[in-house]
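Below is one record:
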Amino acid sequence: MSRNFIEIPLFIAFPGLICYISEMIEKWYEISCVIPVPITDAVCEVMVLMGSTGVIVDERKLDTFVAPDPDEVYTDTYTIKAFFTAQGSPAALVQELHDRLDAEVPGMDSPRLAWREIGAQDWAEGWKQYFNAVQIGKSLVVKPSWEEGEFPGRAVVTLDPGMAFGTGTHGTTRLCLEFITARHDAGAGVHRILDVGTGSGILAIAALALGAENAVACDIDPVAVETASANATINACEDRIEATLDPVEDIRGSFDLVVANILAEENVRLASELCARVAPGGYLVLSGILAEKVDYVMQTFNPRFATPPEIHYAAEWACIEYRRES
């Protein structure tokens, strides 16, 4: 699919959109507004569908060991910041976003939007402080390339997400990693994986680190494909992975695992192509799905499989797992 987003704790994301920050783009428009907490997801979705390459939600983090400031005022609002490439008129962009939010998001009447122009380096690197080694299941660790450490008995994926989505900390990615790791830990690992909307390549590379024979990692974003290829080299599996811009319909063969960490709507749009690439006895794992859209996705996919799926949740996100009959 694919625009992806930077994956940090303060990020409300829509994983079907692989949002990235291109190193070739020097300037960005940051559009911000204060919104009621209950409409956060809806506002973020409109911003992403409008073309935002990333949405940050500022929320106050409490430190267990520090008493709260008694003079601080707490509200039921978040500050949303959406980032757009600096093309065209910012005033026109703000007006269009204002009109769509006003029309499409109940509870957000006459939104007050502010904008400013920023350079890419103002924010593209600061998120790294939130990415530390993540242990998945019994046998996998995902760690950033700048972190040292030993993890005996675990396969280690060293990752430099660069400007593409995927570090393993966001719920949608972690749910997919947990599926891959659980299969390995049960002695029934993945042999051949198709990773749709690969982002940083994390899911394909994790499967390879756990013994998969080969992987195809596809994305419509050139930056994501470059990042996935670079991460494959870091992890010495570049000879077993094909990172490609080819759309799903152009990828040949079948796979014992097809994983699509993309928006619910994109999963539905690609349903025929995704299902067609699942080998007999293989699995289809759909993630990037908001919990309230699970039924919407299952309406399309359930008739294509003989048995109902397993569903796993991480906060507001869901991962739907189907198995094809042998």
About this structure: Residues 12 and 43 are 10 Å apart (CA to CA). DSSP finds eight helices and 14 strands in the chain. The chain has two domains: 27-123, 162-323.
